[in-house]
Design brief:
462 residues, 2 domains, Aspartate Aminotransferase, domain 1, 35% helix, alpha/beta, Aspartate Aminotransferase, domain 2, 13 helices, 7-stranded mixed sheet
Length: 462
């Protein structure tokens, strides 16, 4: 964004226009106790040229996935992004488009959304997909309000194997309505079936499960589904869309609502966003789905046209009838996902999923052959796995950083787990990782195993 300072004369003119003589008069309604009276200790003013140079120097400190080998996971992954995606979404008619309020002048945007919805429905095996949410976390949180409206019940059960950041967002979304959130404990890396049966009752609106879960493990969805529906609650699942290249889609195990993070479908990590919230459900729940839907129709001359068929967000209808207050437009991210799915096709998605599966298992098998490292959970996994280690995870991460490798995520340092997973490292492997890169990581693990530090906790002592 351009550097646009205001002169004292311009500030005075703006204040005069709105009827104030000074900035202090403008903010006089703010209690003095809330006003900052101290000094900010700002550096001296600099020119636009100097400011751009200074910000560029700061940006150079960011570690780039183009220069590092990434085994990071936990919701954001280093998948290959075909060049055609950026070429298409950078076109001015897409890149500058905002929310399509006027359908007659937004046909390209609406068609792009419609194609995205159609592709997501086919991938997820679900009846309906909306025109996207903010991200995977907000999509999952929105299901709580939807389930509450559909069932007339208030309680939500959420598996402790769901991404801890997602759980925090769920708690934030539900706090205002005082919706009770109960956590279903984990056993051997997946949701405990016994605990689920104990916790579920006639007051439960929905059960939220991530599959593959945050630890990368595959949840027993065929065991969970009948338990949930026996109590007439809704089954909500959060999935990795890439996994659906080889795993059963949510529609086939009777999920009522299925959501996910679309970042892996052609979007870069980008320091954490913007991302893409995928939201799908059964057809009978369509009028309670948050956001909006694009649909295809014909005009009076029989020509194909695209419209916003359902506009259930509060920007479009009366607040009391809105299903959500989602305001932004994620259509550009949705378009990237649509382009990715279109050019990859069924076989391409399947091939990416198969490579993720094969490479992650190769790496897991190799690491667990090294003294002091073992798989934390016996459950089958897709592309992520957790290593229980005798070497402090931070030491593993720091040692690998020197070799330009992001080794994984230290679970004990992750907010939401409260230190429950000490000496556990989450590792993700995508189709981009080569055997040479994986062997380089394995070599570091071997080196650390042969030279343990004095303060490390042995596996046998835990």
């Amino acid at each position: 964004m351009p550097y646009t300072p205001h002169t004292p004369e311009e500030k005075k003119a703006m204040l005069n226009e709105i009827g104030f003589s000074s900035f202090e008069e403008l903010i006089k309604t703010i209690p003095e106790s809330l006003q900052f009276k101290g000094k900010l200790n700002l550096p001296k003013p600099i020119s636009e040229l100097e400011a751009k140079k200074f910000l560029s120097e700061i940006a150079e400190d960011n570690q780039n996935l183009c220069e590092y080998t990434s085994f990071l996971g936990g919701g954001v992954y280093d998948h290959y992004i075909p060049s055609i995606i950026n070429h298409i979404i950078s076109r001015s008619e897409f890149y500058t488009a905002y929310t399509p309020y006027q359908a007659e002048v937004s046909q390209g945007t609406l068609q792009g959304i419609y194609e995205y919805q159609s592709l997501i429905c086919e991938l997820f095996g679900m009846d309906v997909a909306n025109a996207s949410m903010y991200d995977g976390a907000s999509a999952l949180a929105e299901t709580c309000h939807m389930a509450r409206d559909l069932t007339g019940r208030n309680k939500i059960l959420i598996a402790d194997s769901v991404n801890p950041h997602y759980i925090k967002v769920v708690r934030t979304y539900t706090e205002g309505l005082k919706i009770p959130i109960k956590i279903v404990p984990v056993k051997n890396g997946t949701v405990s079936i016994e605990e689920l049966e104990k916790l579920i009752d006639d007051s439960v609106a929905a059960v939220l499960v991530q599959h593959p879960n945050f630890f990368g493990a595959l949840e027993p969805m065929l065991d969970i589904e009948p338990i949930v529906h026996k109590k007439n609650a809704l089954l909500v699942t959060c999935v990795d869309p890439i996994s659906l290249g080889i795993l059963t889609p949510p529609g086939e195990y009777n999920a009522d609502i299925a959501v996910g993070e679309g970042q892996s479908l052609g979007l870069p990590a980008s320091l954490g966003g913007p991302f893409l919230g995928i939201f799908t459900c059964k057809k009978e729940f369509i009028r309670r789905m948050p956001g909006r839907l694009s649909a295809r129709t014909v005009d009076t001359e029989g020509k194909t046209g695209y419209v916003l068929a359902l506009q259930t967000r509060e920007q479009h209808i009366r607040r009391g009838k809105a299903t959500s207050n989602i305001c932004t437009n994620e259509a550009l991210c949705a378009l990237a996902a649509a382009v990715y799915l279109s050019i990859m096709g069924k076989q391409g998605i399947k091939e990416v999923a198969k490579q993720c599966f094969a490479k992650s298992h190769y790496l897991a098998q190799a690491i667990t052959k090294i003294r002091g490292f073992e798989l934390a959970f016996p459950a089958p996994f897709f592309k992520e796995f957790v290593i229980k280690t005798a070497v402090q995870p931070d030491r593993i991460i720091e040692t690998n950083l020197k070799k330009k490798i992001f080794a994984g995520v230290n679970l004990s340092a992750l907010g939401g787990f409260d230190g429950r997973w000490t000496n556990h490292l989450l590792i993700a492997v995508t189709e981009k990782r080569t055997k040479k890169e994986m062997n380089k990581l394995i070599k570091v693990f071997k080196t650390l195993s042969n030279r343990p530090s004095s303060d490390e906790t042995r596996l046998g002592e835990q």
